[in-house]
Amino acid sequence: MIAIVACDSAWGIGCNGCLQQPVSSDLRRFRALTLGKVVIYGRKTMDTFPGGRPLPGRTNLVLRTRDEDSSPNCDYFSSLDELLARIRTMKQAGYQDSDFIVIGGGTVYEQLLPYCDTVMVTQFESMYEADVWFPNLDCSPDWFLDTCGHWLEEDGVRFRYLTYRRNDIA
């Protein structure tokens, strides 16, 4: 599995249910990387999507902790075990590990990071107010920085793309 995350310089990923810095070029990159894939996320993350609806052009798997109205074009799971069973079934049907992309939020990242072998990070140069964080991969012996892009800038926001890979010994 792959995880995709946008975070600030202190690994903050959100505040008050919103992205810290929505950057148009990064959102376009996210769309390109996830289109036609299986995206896995929590119900609170879906609330941040336009209209609170599932992402079009993708298979949406949503982990949620309580029953509520379901959205069409989504499969809902009330436990990690149920979600992992569905992923196993999809792999038996021909899906590859790289077809599954974890996109948030904090609790879902925490639960599924042990199953990921790649994390694609959009890192903002600045630190922003945050109430949700991604694990600091730089401090983990399980991960190494594989690629580090050049700093880019859009509307005064500096960011770069990083790719972390799981250590073979992890």
Describe the structure in your own words.
This protein has 170 residues and is an alpha/beta fold. It has one domain (2-10, 27-166): Dihydrofolate Reductase, subunit A, CATH 3.40.430. The protein is 21% helix and 35% strand. It contains four helices and twelve strands; from the N terminus they run E-E-E-H-E-H-E-E-H-E-H-E-E-E-E-E. The strands form two sheets. Strands 1, 4, 5, 6, 7, 8, 10, 11 and 12 form a nine-stranded mixed beta sheet that branches. The chain is globular, with a radius of gyration of 16 Å. The two termini are 15 Å apart. The mean pLDDT is 93.
List keywords for this structure.
170 residues; Dihydrofolate Reductase, subunit A; three-stranded antiparallel beta sheet; 4 helices; 35% strand
Distance between the termini: 15 Å
SSE sequence, one letter per element: EEEHEHEEHEHEEEEE
Shape designation = globular
Q: Name the structural class.
A: alpha/beta
Number of helices: 4
Largest sheet: 9 strands, mixed
CATH topology title: Dihydrofolate Reductase, subunit A
Total domains, how many? 1
The percent of residues in helical segments reads 10-25%
What Rg, in angstroms, do the CA atoms define? 16 Å
| CATH homologous superfamily annotation | Dihydrofolate Reductase, subunit A
List the helices and strands and how they pair.
Layout: E1 2-7, E2 12-15, E3 18-19, H1 24-34, E4 38-42, H2 43-47, E5 59-63, E6 74-77, H3 80-92, E7 100-104, H4 106-112, E8 118-124, E9 132-133, E10 143-148, E11 152-154, E12 157-166
Parallel strand pairs: 1-7, 1-8, 4-5, 4-7, 5-6
Antiparallel strand pairs: 2-3, 2-9, 8-12, 10-12, 11-12
